[in-house]
Specification:
By secondary structure, the chain is mainly beta. The chain has a 22-stranded antiparallel β-barrel. The protein is globular, with a radius of gyration of 29 Å.
């Protein structure tokens, strides 16, 4: 590993091939108001970073490496009135353009003060990008984590609690936290670390066409930047619960955050007249959430216990009483700035303890699967600003994730050997047995990243950088632990399991890219190229592994001889990216983008070991699936403050991962291959009105079509195992929701109303938000028909839901406020169907048949479990809470 880094690192630097952006850029021109001539050497002072830049002979100025936030800018020069502009918004990966026209004046000290207004048309983007900050979602009902926020964005569908962007599979989204990926590399490809919305400074959603700085994502990127401490103290404390009303899931949520100058160097030492150079600021947060949605019955098999959360290696402990779903997340961030240097230390953690609801175990919660995961993320980032147009970063990161899945925390040797379901009294619920699954995994990802940014001139902004990840993977997965394997196996509990896999692997991957942002008055081009590599490591290259793999696979070559396993020591992919934006007018813009995007397979498909020679084995030569995407977009501000955007997309997915049988058929051994293809297409329409005159509107409609052969790499092997043959060539994917519509209407009384009565203190700072969502039905496969002809051929009923928030903000003293709110989720209490009778396509009802062949009707006791609440999406819930802010 050390030798690999030593060999590759110089090449990456020399080739000048930056990673996901965490800063933005400010640029523009300074002109004489009367003559319109450019002004040279005008001073542009940026208050929040205490920095001054100067205009050149063309009047041009620029400053890169500005953290996202709100800024105040002052422009001044002897002989002109000062120009002060407040509320200037800087976003990551974006250029904010400002042009200043200074008024000549023989007097000094005169000033013109203006408040900046956000532009609705953004000519800086060449793809679909949505930037969300605290003001974007603070009035929405029950937005405690960013998954709920993402689910209402155009092009994003939530299916079985997993997010899909524009038709892609689960796990094709890259989550980036403060510049470093936080992805589960082993199983799901999903976000490995939960972040509550009160910790987020800015979140950028890239649906497709993202620049070369982003990689290892087949569908989209979620770039999250957490809050920094400011020069003054601020914080919040929030509590909410639904336990007061009958519409309750026994849910409780608590949140605490605080930030500002670090107390020792910022307050205590200055009190004793001891000055430390530079500024040291901090931000920290802690969030807890518990609920009992989809409740198990209260029997003696339902036993909750007192638990303990260990933070920072046990330095702090938090105790809590179990519920069915328990989650937490926290963060600490320290940022030190001295002149043109910066050092940031960050710690993030999150965890969950969830009893997976299963209607079959409704009376036996302690026999249901218990999902426990804990993640920790450490980063160190060094920043050096060489001048106003040049800086570099060096980052080190460690992502640790522990995941356990078991029956109520039991180890395999404690499992009930009665593995099959037993419903003794025929009421639809299991009376004996337990799920026959046990898994434990530990992954550590060490990340080393560097980047260099250079604003060459007013036309070209270059980015260049590298990333190296070293992965440690330890995992054991056992199915049917009561059965004894017929050979000695590696890993934990080697003497248990009909199916037994062990992963003990050390792999390396990395990337490098070169990108140029070319800016002209009527044209913006983002052009780049990206290189990614993956090295599976020496474990799969050992002779012991190769012999076991060849024995398990028993693949023959064209001559009928046993095929030897030859593993590529390193795989390389190259991805070109191109995006073009054309601002027709200041109120109209067009863009187009094209790109190739590769994503590494989840490591289980590569590293599942062959020693048990049963079930599935990994493929060390598995290639990265490839997405080729085209997108065209149009935006028009057709009425003041109202923006209409229309975007169309088409995507081809090549080398999707599937699984096929290898060796003699009777052995039932399957291997993962790059054997599938899929495609997605559609368009999105958004209509938005920025907040003014005390209300805002955000509406979006998405039409999409997602088709392919299989929904997961395991599906084809399941159909072969069950004797249904190979999958059909192309069908709708289960998450293929053709029509999706979301509408958010917010009224918040900030004053300046036409009717004077609304300006009274009682009605001031009163808010009302409605969120309405509609989705057409997901496809399902009817029973009793040939799967090759009927797979996903019918559609579930549509879903519709309206949520509401009422809030009132009260000022206690200066800079101390408390907000009271009421959130009503699914306020119309609509029963949205999640699962139907596959014979009828409707919700189960009395008199439904068990099957069409024998025409037997489901008995009264059998159908009781089919009326379970889990067959529907959650019904009405009312939460009441308060939030203190200072």
């Amino acid at each position: 590993m050390r030798k690999l880094i030593i060999n590759i690192l110089p090449l990456l630097f020399l080739s000048c091939l930056v990673y996901s952006g965490t800063t933005g850029k400010l640029s523009g021109y300074v002109y004489d108001k009367d003559s319109k001539a450019p002004i040279t050497n005008a001073a542009i002072f940026i208050k929040e970073i205490n920095a001054t830049i100067f205009s050149d002979e063309t009047g041009y100025f620029s400053r890169i490496m500005l953290p996202p936030g709100i800024y105040s800018v002052r422009v001044y020069l002897i002989g002109y009135k000062d120009f002060q502009l407040s509320n200037v918004v800087i976003n990551s990966d974006k250029t904010t353009n400002l042009n200043f026209f200074l008024e000549p004046s023989p007097l000094t000290g005169e000033a013109v003060t203006v408040t900046s207004e956000r532009k609705l048309i953004d000519h800086d983007f060449t793809s679909t990008i949505k930037i969300l900050d605290n003001e974007s979602y603070r009035h929405l009902p029950k937005i405690q984590n960013f998954d709920n926020l993402l689910a209402i964005q155009p092009g994003i569908v939530r299916y079985n609690n997993n997010l899909h962007i524009r038709g892609g599979r689960q796990g094709e989204i890259l989550y980036v936290l403060d510049g470093i990926p936080i992805k589960d590399i082993l199983y799901s490809g999903a976000n490995a670390l939960e972040i509550s919305t009160n910790s987020i400074q800015e979140m950028t959603i890239l649906n497709s066409g993202f620049n070369a700085e982003y990689g290892n994502a087949g569908s989209g990127v979620i770039n999250i930047i957490t809050k920094n401490g400011a020069d003054t103290y601020s914080g919040s404390f929030e509590l909410s619960s639904d336990g007061i009303t009958q519409y309750s899931n026994d849910e409780y949520f608590g949140s605490l955050s605080i930030g500002g100058p670090e107390p020792l160097t910022g307050v205590l030492l200055p009190f004793f007249e001891i000055e430390i150079p530079g500024k040291l600021r901090f931000f920290s947060s802690l969030n807890l959430n518990q609920s009992n949605a989809y409740k198990f019955n209260d029997t003696y098999h339902k036993n909750f216990k007192t638990r303990k959360i260990e933070l920072i290696g046990g330095l702090f402990n938090v105790k809590y009483e179990d519920r069915q779903s328990n989650s937490y997340d926290g963060s600490i961030k320290l940022k030190y700035d001295y002149r043109n240097y910066g050092l940031t230390l960050t710690y993030n953690t999150s965890g969950e303890r969830i009893f997976r609801y299963d209607v079959l175990y409704k009376n036996r919660m302690d026999s249901a699967l218990l999902d426990e995961n804990h993640a920790e993320h450490y980063t160190i980032k060094w920043t050096h600003t060489l001048n106003n147009n040049m800086f570099y970063n060096i980052s080190l990161g460690l992502l640790k994730r522990n995941w356990d899945l078991s029956v109520n925390g039991l180890t395999p040797d404690k499992y009930n050997p009665v593995w099959y379901s037993q419903d003794i009294n025929s009421d639809g619920y299991n009376d004996l047995s337990m799920p026959q699954f046990w898994s434990r995994s530990r992954t550590n990802i060490f990340t080393f990243k560097g980047d260099y940014n250079y604003q060459l001139n007013s036309r070209h902004l270059f980015k260049t950088g590298f990333e190296i990840n070293y992965e440690e993977i330890f995992a054991t997965e056992i199915q049917y632990p009561g059965n004894i394997p017929d050979k000695n196996l590696p890993g934990e509990y080697p003497g248990y399991g009909e199916f037994h896999w062990n992963l003990n692997n050390y792999s390396t991957n990395g990337s490098a890219f070169l990108q140029d942002k070319i800016e002209y008055d009527g044209l913006l081009v983002n052009a780049g190229i990206r290189l990614d590599y993956f090295a599976p490591g020496k474990q799969v290259n050992s002779e012991k592994y190769k012999l076991a793999w060849e024995e398990a696979a028993q693949i023959k070559d064209n001559n009928g001889s046993a095929q030897k396993l030859e593993i590529d020591k390193i795989q390389v992919t190259i991805s070109p990216r191109l995006g073009i934006s054309h601002p027709i007018t200041d109120k109209t813009a067009l863009f187009f983008n094209y790109g190739h995007f590769y994503q590494l397979p989840e490591r289980q498909y590569i590293f599942r070991d062959p020693y048990a020679a049963k079930g599935w084995i990994g493929n060390p030569n598995l290639k990265s699936p490839k997405t080729v995407c085209y997108e065209f977009g149009f935006s028009q501000e057709f009425i003041e403050q109202i923006l209409l955007s229309i975007k169309g997309f088409y995507k081809d997915y090549y080398d999707y991962i599937g699984s096929l049988e290898v060796g003699p058929p009777a052995r039932r051994i399957f291997m993962f291959y790059n054997s599938d293809y899929a495609n997605a297409k559609g368009f999105e329409i958004t209509l938005s009105r920025s907040f003014s005159d005390n209300f805002s509107l955000d509406a979006n409609y998405t039409y999409s079509s997602a088709k392919g052969r299989s929904e997961s790499p395991f599906e084809e092997s399941y159909t072969i195992w069950q004797g249904s043959g190979l999958l059909p060539m192309e069908v709708r994917m289960p998450w293929d929701q053709n029509h999706n519509l979301n509408c958010i209407l917010t009224y918040y009384n900030s004053g300046n109303n036409y009717f004077e009565i609304l300006n009274s203190p009682v009605l001031r700072d009163l808010g009302l938000t409605f969120k309405w969502s509609y989705g057409s039905g997901f496809p399902f496969t009817p029973s009793g028909k040939n799967i090759r002809l009927s797979k996903n051929s019918e559609e579930l009923p549509f879903t519709m839901q309206m949520d509401m928030r009422i809030e009132k903000k009260v000022k206690i003293v200066k800079d101390l406020y408390v907000s009271f709110f009421l959130d009503c989720i699914n306020m119309l209490n609509r029963k949205n169907i999640k699962e139907v009778n596959p014979l009828t396509g409707k919700a189960y009802t009395y008199g439904d048949l068990f099957d069409n062949t024998n025409k037997r009707i489901l008995s009264y006791r059998e159908i009781l479990s089919k009326f379970d609440e889990s067959y529907y999406y959650p019904l009405r819930q009312i939460l009441i809470g308060a939030k203190i802010e200072f």
